[in-house]
What we know:
alpha/beta; D-Maltodextrin-Binding Protein, domain 2; 2 domains; 46% helix; globular
Amino acid sequence: MRALQRLSVLVGLAAVLLAPMAVGAQEFPNKGPIRIIVPFPAGGPSDIIARSVGQKMADILKQKVVIDNRGGAGGVLGTELVAKADPDGYTIAISSAGALAISASVQKGVPYDAPKDFKPITLVAKVPEMLVVATSVSASNMAELVALAKSKPGKLNFASSGIGSLPHLAGELLKLNAHINIVHVPYRGAAPAVNDLLGQQVQMVFLDLPILIPQVQAGKLKAIAIGTTKRVAALPNVPTTVEAGYPKIQTENWYGMVAPKNTPPDVVAKLNKAAVEALRSDEVKKRLDPLGVILAGDTPDEFAAFITSEKEKWAAVVKAAGIKPQ
């Protein structure tokens, strides 16, 4: 009898000790703001997407959400902050394909392994890369551009936002699949690359659709193709690379929400539910659809598998192109 009484006391004591932990997790979020780290400067596609989604998540969770821009090293520096943050759900990131899938192949000493060091929450959005040329380039479609490049091997340049960036790898995919010799000119970001393209210093570039839409609509750049399987509503007359005869040149940047690896599953589930609901809301669609952003929203497991597949895909491109880690 005494043994049973002692057991009953121990069970009761354990329940008392564990109760605050269970309630704390159950009530998430119940302290301070949720900080979404965007590992790029303010004003770019990732920042616009994060602010739109974060604002709606704040409404859904009834909790303040703040955007914290921490640029550097192609998104690696800001993303690393989340890998090292407390795994309580209050510090998460909306990071990019570059930081989560490509960096391991093109940068030396990346301080995290994305599939192992993060808890995926959801794929937030895909942003097709669009191939554009300067107005001085005589080509107006993919066939003409490839023919022009073949007639002038090594004479045409393609810009990028940096060595190992997605625009760089998109250009390498073009070279490999079209069998052309064009010269890579890396820049420190998208803005200077576009400026030199407008100034006729380089001939072409692949970049995120939202960056290029205003220039194309204003007639300052010529759109050649969008690197995805379906046309986008923002530019319905621009064909895809698949339509142009190059199905292997599929180049979509993407942005996904991740948390530190030991974040409790129920907290991840709440963040996932709020993020997916935000992505399906009319407010977010109205803000991002005109920019050519393709909103996503999936499960943590689906996003985890996607990160792994993207990491393998771009590692193969890096190897085929002979790009050495910097």
